[in-house]
Design goal:
The protein is an alpha+beta fold. It has 14 helices and 18 strands.
């Protein structure tokens, strides 16, 4: 995860007149949110894409497989040369997905779980415990990148006016890590050797990963959600994890008494809850991408019917994918037979154990518990994040919060959580046990819309098909002046 410290404030970068004007178009004027919602659609056909042509095609850019989609009523091969998104387009969409937008309200009662918040830095999406457990991978013709601006904030509201537009490009240029110089080796009909009708990347995904497209992929650290939820449950809810095989406490017996832990919560249900919390944040990011693309006049294809385990790298004998590492589990102790991702070493170390980053239950629990109290964090006494960032609380209010005992996770909660995690590892092989600690199941691929496809197949009467809005029709004239639309 990113560090909690804010670091030195970056100096504003100079935008060209064209860049300033482009970002201004996104923030000034234009359609309202409700206007965008009224025309919001999934437009899956982009420049260079194909649809059920019945012809062989080799996916040189990813799986290198030669495939054929059976011929059908929507047979179409785009003649448009793919035009990649511009830097400003990608930067704006990435920011809309989960970029910094200032400081959260943190209006959670101290007596009602304020200590569960891992950060007070705001993003364009909500998140369980504001834990920033979802990162954004950007896949384009230049390779694969991790977009992670981190928790440093320059102002309570980051984009107030034209003087702040530079930040959109600053975060894009300076807060990305290059993971690979190519697209991941997955494509439609990626399948285990020897199979003939297995399509692990999904029947809908024929045009996935195409040249010219940008694939925005939220990747979630479900393990961080899981441990944070465990600490919160033990401190404020009185629930304890329960082994579903025995209906007994999961290692935390000594803490079960009035005023501490009192009601059992089945482990599989708890794991599912953590996964649901992750999924809601990823879904919000994808919806933000769709709205941003509707404003820009781009196609945004929301996707989820693929194997994210394969994409992340669980089956390198089939496809290396993104190269994440996975734990070899004893099948007898893997209750749901789920793949178990440990993260991308040194880039995204998932909050799970055992792993190189967190070899023991204690290492994992103390790491997650300490995120809010480490030097520079929002509940720290030294170099307090809120003091340096200018909010969200007045100084006297912050002082009272820091002094209140309920703003600090008690030692017994940490010990009980360690005991529980150790039990889960001993009995099921890892924690979390029933869900993959890293998920990337819902994403969006963005492209320039092939107008010719929609004009050929969709109802229009005497006008344009309803799928072609003025923003889509005029996209190249507006965003790529001097470049003709290849689909016209």
């Amino acid at each position: 995860m990113s560090s909690t410290g804010g670091g030195a404030s970056p100096q504003p970068i100079a935008l060209t007149n064209e860049e300033q004007a482009a970002i201004a178009r996104l923030f000034e004027g234009g359609p309202s949110l409700f206007g965008l919602l009224s025309t919001l659609r999934t437009r899956r056909m982009g420049h260079g894409y194909r649809s059920e042509t019945g012809e062989d095609e080799t996916f040189d850019w990813s799986s290198r497989a030669t495939v054929r989609q059976a011929e059908g009523p929507l047979a179409y091969a785009s003649q448009a040369r793919p035009v990649p998104l511009s830097e400003v387009e990608e930067a704006a969409i990435a920011w809309a997905a989960l970029g910094p937008n200032g400081i959260i309200a943190a209006d959670v009662p101290v007596q009602g779980d304020l200590s569960s918040l891992l950060y007070w830095a705001g993003r364009t999406v909500p998140g369980s415990s504001n834990d920033m457990a979802v990162d954004l991978f950007i896949i384009n013709d230049q390779g694969t990148f991790l977009y992670r601006p981190g928790p440093a904030r320059l102002a309570p509201v980051e984009i107030r006016g034209p003087e702040d537009y530079w930040k959109i490009l600053h975060w894009y240029r300076n807060c990305r890590t290059k993971i690979s110089d190519r697209r991941p080796d997955v494509g439609w009909f990626t399948a285990p050797p020897g199979t003939h009708n297995v399509n692990t990347m999904g029947a809908l995904q024929y045009n996935m990963n195409r040249p010219g497209s940008t694939w925005f992929l939220p990747v979630g650290d479900v393990g961080l959600e899981w441990v944070t939820l465990l600490l919160s449950s033990y401190q404020f809810s009185g629930f304890y994890l329960q082994d579903p095989n025995t209906d007994k406490p999961a290692g935390c017996d000594q803490w079960i008494r009035p005023g501490f832990l009192e009601v059992g919560f089945p482990l599989p249900t708890f794991d599912e809850l953590a996964l649901m919390l992750h999924a809601s944040e990823a879904a919000c990011a994808v919806q933000n991408i769709r709205l941003a693309c509707e404003a820009l006049g781009l196609g945004a294809w929301a996707m989820g019917g693929y194997s994210d385990d394969l994409l992340l790298g669980a089956y390198p004998e089939v496809a290396r994918g993104l190269g994440f590492s996975f734990l070899e589990r004893d099948p007898a102790r893997n209750p749901s037979k789920t793949a178990t991702c440990q993260g991308l070493p040194g880039v995204l170390d998932a909050a799970m154990t055992p792993s190189p980053a967190f070899p023991t239950a204690e290492a994992l629990v103390r790491h997650v518990a300490g995120l809010r109290y480490a030097r520079g964090a929002q509940l720290a006494r030294e170099d307090n994040w809120a003091s340096a960032s200018g909010g969200p609380f007045r100084g006297d209010v912050l002082e009272r919060i820091l002094e209140h005992p309920r703003a600090h996770i008690p030692d017994w909660v940490i010990e009980a959580a360690i005991d529980t995690v150790q039990y889960v590892v001993e009995h099921f092989g890892c924690a979390p046990a029933y869900v993959n600690p890293v998920r990337a199941k819902f994403s969006a691929q963005v492209h320039h819309v092939d107008l010719a496809y929609y004009r050929r197949f969709h109802a229009a009467g005497d006008a344009e098909p309803f799928l072609i809005t003025p923003r889509i029709r005029d996209h190249f004239a507006t965003w790529h002046p001097g470049v003709p639309d290849p689909s016209l």
